Amino acid sequence: MTFSLNHPLFWFYLLYIVLVISALLHMLYQRRTPQNLMSWLLALLLLPYVGVVLYLIFGSRKLLQKRSKPLIAMHPFQESKPETPLAVELDNLLRANQIAGTTDHNQVTFCEDGTLAFEHLLEEIENARRSIHIETYIFKLDSTGKEILQALINKAQAGVEVKLLLDAVGSLRLYLNSKPLNALRQAGGEFAFFQPIWSSLMASQVNLRNHRKIYLFDQTILLTGGMNLSNDYLGIAKHADQHWIDILLKIQGPNVFHHQSIFNADWLYATGKKLPEPRPVKPDTDADIMMQAVPSGPDIDSDALFETLLFSIHQARSHIQIVTPYFIPDSAVLNALLMALKRGVKVTLLTPESSDHLIFDLGRSSYMREISEHGGDICYYQNTMLHAKLILIDQQMMMIGSANLDYRSLFINHEMVNFIYSKELIEQLSNWTAGLLKNSRTYHPSDNKVRRLLENLTRIIAPIL
Fold it and tell me: Is the dihedral of CA 369, 370, 373, 374 positive or negative?
């Protein structure tokens, strides 16, 4: 079947080929992983034009974003050298990637209870005297969100500087109807949305979401971790299983300085308004938590988080513990875990039996099967949704924050994690993880050949989820 130059279908196919080649060249220029590149190429070929539209909307990674959002500059502040060999090497690698070094004399309080975390948040809002800066992915005006918003309005009316930064997709309902936030503005506070959807669509950046959770009070107290602001995470729960399982850290000390710097950069990008440079934070001489603030995303020049995580897995000698709601590792991380198992390292993965995203549950199956078949221990948490993100290496390093162990968190989203090198806090979180494992059941891969085939087929789309 042939078409003349004047036939409409000729120009239809010619334009399609040009668009596919353009998208392919863009991916090659970005140095995508072969896994991600092949997934997008299949989408482009199997979904004519639709695949191109999807790539324009969701395919962007770093290059386009860098043109509009300046890179975050993390300035050294009261740096210290960690003590264990693994921590020293991780600190060196992060510094080489322009991530600020480890800070000492931080005071850290760990909270995993949604009701207590809610009380801590309201207490810090109430106690703030100068400023409240909140950056989050999800803010819902359910009973929890309404109480938080009213507390912020009260503080703004009292003359406290209140700034609320929300992701436009994560807080979609408020983005589409921001009228409930006008009371905050009328009280003297400010709010803004990160990556407004329409302008992001036009710039092919809607895929670049802000997943960070940074709650700052007077630039001296920080709440951070994986908890968003809604009933799922916080609030007065009538039953223990109403809240998702997640982690919130209360931090005081030099580490707060770096989180304030990151908030300032994100606020400048979202509003065009520059905030004063963060005030120096005095170390707590009675505290001894050594930790390192590690942002990742399009505003970081390198893949520092990914590189450091990959390196730590390769350096593991005894035990790797992973807690994550979404487990879709890229090929490098998966191979590192498989090699660790071959080296005799114990690998434990704890993930929810059913998460809040069915497509992620389908996408993880083949990866879990492969780890299980190589001797890894995989456990399903059963009681409720497990949303915590935690990685422990040899009781020497702990990574905790907003990043999941999937392609989106490691390469696309704006994320915020902390590497913790202090034995006491690592032991506390390790014991907490052990408690979760007691309420979990062991994963056993199905022997059904059809299911195995379907699981392997999901690898085609997993890298673009």
Answer: negative
